[in-house]
Design a protein that fits this description.
Elements (H helix, E strand, L loop, with lengths): L3 H6 L13 E10 L5 E7 L10 E2 L2 E3 L6 H13 L7 E5 L4 E2 L4 E10 L13 E8 H5 L4 E5 L5 E7 L2 E3 L1 H14 L10 E3 L8
Parallel strand pairs: 1-7, 9-12
Antiparallel strand pairs: 1-4, 2-3, 2-8, 5-7, 6-7, 9-10, 10-11
């Protein structure tokens, strides 16, 4: 896949800083090199207090003295054993993602060779690791509108057998569109968020 359009749409990570946020976090969109690239998703442990069982991108809160790139790569190493030295940072997705509690999340996009194995480092935090081909994410059959009875609706994906919704699905939706890899899909196809990934 050609990364030129993607890189044209990304912004410098330093330009993604939001000083008005109470708390800041960073996630990593880790895109493997090659003709059939994939990206890394994790399923959070069911015992976690926040977002148990949900599918997410590697990432977490930005610690004191860190920038967004350092935080995203550090969390990737801690969660799935990713080697930060293998990453080539391409930029950040424009338009950081607001979440509950005024946490602002910045998505850092990085390419990597895709050659070293990844696995859950801390089972108390990560239940499983999934490398999902971009072609599978872009497949219209894998896409739907996720919804909750309280009125929430947003993009959804089935990725390697995992139901992806919420902030992670929002980032993936934005990423595919920015890169020009999105295919037309049926937005009227709705699926309720299952209880085991945060639905009720």
């Amino acid at each position: 896949m050609d990364l030129e359009r993607l890189q044209e749409g990304l912004i410098r990570p330093d330009d993604a800083v939001h000083t008005d946020a109470l708390r800041r976090a960073a996630v990593a969109v880790l895109l493997s090199d090659g003709a059939d690239p994939d990206l890394v998703l994790t399923r959070r442990a069911a015992t976690l207090r926040d977002h148990p069982g949900q599918v997410s991108l590697p990432g977490g809160m930005i610690e004191a003295g860190e920038d967004v790139v350092t935080a995203a790569l550090r969390e990737s190493e801690e969660e799935v054993g990713f080697d930060p030295e293998s990453a080539t940072v391409l930029g950040a997705l424009p338009g950081s993602v607001p979440t509950r509690g005024r946490i602002i999340v910045t998505a850092i996009v990085a390419s990597w060779p895709g050659t070293h194995p990844l696995s859950a480092v801390d089972r108390a935090e990560v239940a499983s690791v999934h490398r999902v081909p971009i072609r599978d994410l872009a497949d219209p059959a894998a896409r739907f509108t996720a919804h909750l009875p309280i009125g929430y609706s947003g993009p959804g994906f089935m990725a390697d057998g995992q139901f992806v919704w919420g902030m992670t699905a929002y980032v993936l939706d934005h990423f595919l569109r920015l890169a020009g890899w999105e295919q037309p899909w049926d937005r009227s196809r709705r699926r309720r968020v299952p209880k085991d990934v945060g639905g009720w």
